[in-house]
Amino acid sequence: MFYILTYLHHTLMKNIDEINPIYSKINYFFKNKFHFLITLGFFISMFYIAFFHHPIWTETDGIYWLNFGKSILEGNGEDVIITSGGVGGAVLYAFLDSIFHDSFSTMKIVAILSGSGIVLLSFFITKNIFNYRVAILTQLFVAFNPVLHYVSVQALNELLPILMIFISLYFITKKELKFFDYCIVGTLLGLAAIFRLQALFILLPLLLFIFLRNKQILKNSLTVITVGFFFLLAFSPQIFYNYSTHGVILDSWPNYYIGSIYALQNPDWHDKIHSLDYTNLYSIITLDFNLFLENYFYNLFIHNFDILFNLGFGTFDNLSIVYAIPILGLLLFLGGLGYILYNKKMLPKNFLPLLFLPIIYFPLISIVPVYRAYHLLPMWLPIIIICVIFILYVLSKVDFFKRNSPTKIIFNKHQKLNIFSISVVIFILLLNSGVTYKLVDASFYGNQLSTLENEFTNIFQSRLISDQSSYDVILISEILKTQYNIEESYVMANLPHYSFYSNSNFISAEFSEGNSDDTILDYISKKNWSDFEILTSNIHSFPPDRLNRYDTSPNYLIYQPYFSDPNLALYDSGPATKQLEILLNPNDPRIPTNFEFLFQSDKQQIVLYKIHEPKD
After folding, report:
1. Which of 129, 398, 479, 588 could be cross-linked to 582 through a Cys-Cys bond (beta carbons 3.0 to 4.6 Å apart)?
2. Which SS3 state, helix, strand or coil, does residue 53 take?
3. How far apart are CA 347 and CA 129, in angstroms?
4. pTM given for the model
5. In Å, how far from its chain's centre is CA 225?
6. Nearest to residue 544, comparing CAs of 59, 85, 68, 62?
C-alpha cells in the first residue's frame, strides 16, 4: 500500500508544484526514483517470503534440474535427457552448488534477483515506448502479480531466462536501434534458449517484426541475419553438447509431455505417442492429424486462454491482471485493445515488437496445454501495457459525478488518473496482494481458504517450520540420514526431496505404474512396468539412467498414494495397482516380511519402510 499511496501523492501534488518548490522536489524524487523504490520493495518482500516462509525445498523440477547438472558435470551426460529445456540452468545451478554448497538458497536468490530485474525492466521497457504514467502503472501491476510473486520465491529454472528475454525486449524497443542493439538481442535470446526453449518463440516474432517494419527489405534482411547469427552463436554450446553427447542437434522429446497432458486422447494414440518414433513435432502431428487439431484449438481458445485471462473454467493458476475475478482482466484488455485500434495512427512504432509477441508466441506455445501460468510470462508485458492504457486513457475519462462528462476519448500523453480509475488500481493491487498471501499460506502451510475475519487474524500468527505442510520431508530425511550407508542406498519415492535432504540415491516412482494385479514386490522390481514407465523413472532418478544400463533396486520405500495434479496431467489413467495401499497400515499381515516399518506421518498418507534382503 505504501507504493500506491506514494503514487497517488505524486499524481495529486503535480498541479501545485509551481506554487510550492518543496512539492516540486518531492515530485522530482518520485518521478526519478519511484521505479527503483517499487523494485526494492518487491525484492525485500520476496526475500522475506523465500527465506522466512519457504525453508523446505519442495519444488520437484528444481531438484531435477540440479540432479541433471550434477550428472553432466560428473561426465555422465549421456544418461541425462532434459525434455523441456537446455542444459544451461542445470549446469549453472550444479556449478553454483559446487561453490556455495547450498543449492536451495542459491537458486532462490537467483529467482529473487531475476524477479526483481523483471519488475525494474518492465518500467524501462514501457518507458521506451510510452510516458512515465503508463510505465509506472505497468510496473506496479507487474510487481503486484501473484504468479510472479510465487515463482520469485521458488528454486526453479524459470525466471533467469525470462529476465534475459526482458533485457532483449528493452533493447528492441529503443527508439533508435543500432548494430550493437541487434547483437545484444540475438545473444540474450540465444542464452535464454539454453535455459528454456520458449525463447525461440520470442525470437520468431522479433525477426518477423524486423523484416516487416518498413519497405527497406534488403536492410531488414541483413538485420534479421545479424540477430539470427548472434542467436546461433550464443546457442552453439547447447548444439555442441547435444551433438557430442547424443549425436543430435536438438535433444528434446515433446512427445513426453504431449502424451501426458493432451486433454483429448484415445488409448491407441496414447500408447503410440510415447514411443521413440514420435520424438519430433512432425511425427506427432501426423500420427493423428484430426486429434492434433482438436487438442490444438482446445489449447488455443479454452485451456491456454483461460490461463492467460482467467475465464472462470476452474483454473486458479492464471496471469490475468485481476487474478481472482474471472473475465474482468479480459475486459480490461479488450477495452485497451479497442482504444489502440481506434488511435492506431498515434501509436508509437517501437510498441510494435511487443505487439508481435502474443500474436506469434501464444499460437506457437498452444501446441501444448500450458500447465503453469509462468510459461506465458515472456509474452505477458504487452498485455499488461494494453490494460494500463485502458485504465489511464479510458477509465480516467469516466466521471460519475458529472452529467456532461466528455464522451470522446483521445490520446493524451499528460492524461491523469481520476478518482474512479485510482479506485480501480487500488482495488486490483489490494486483491492481488491478498491472493499472494493466500498462495503462500496454502502452498507452504496447507491452510485452506476461510472467512475474511479468520484470514485477517491468521496474518499476525507466528509460523514455525513444523507448521509447514511439507515438514514430513524433514522428519523422514532425518530418519534416513541415521541409516547405515545411506549415501550408497536407493530410496524409491514419488518426490526427490527425501533423497536430496538425506544425500541418498533416488528411484523415481509415481505409484501408478505396472499392472492391476501386481504385488508389492512385483511393483518395486518394476516387473510389469511399461517401457515408457521405466524410461520416465530412469530419467528422473538420481543418478539418471536414460539408457537403462543399471539394475537398481530400492533399499527404502516412501509410499504416498498416487495423486494426479489437475493442472499437469490432463490425461489420467489412475493408479495401476491397489496393492500398495496396504502399506498405509503397518500392521497389515500382507506386507512383505522383509519390509521394516520406520515412519508414518500423522498429517498425510506417507509411510517409510526399510527393505531388507529377502530370506530364502
Report:
1. 588
2. coil
3. 9
4. 0.91
5. 31
6. 68
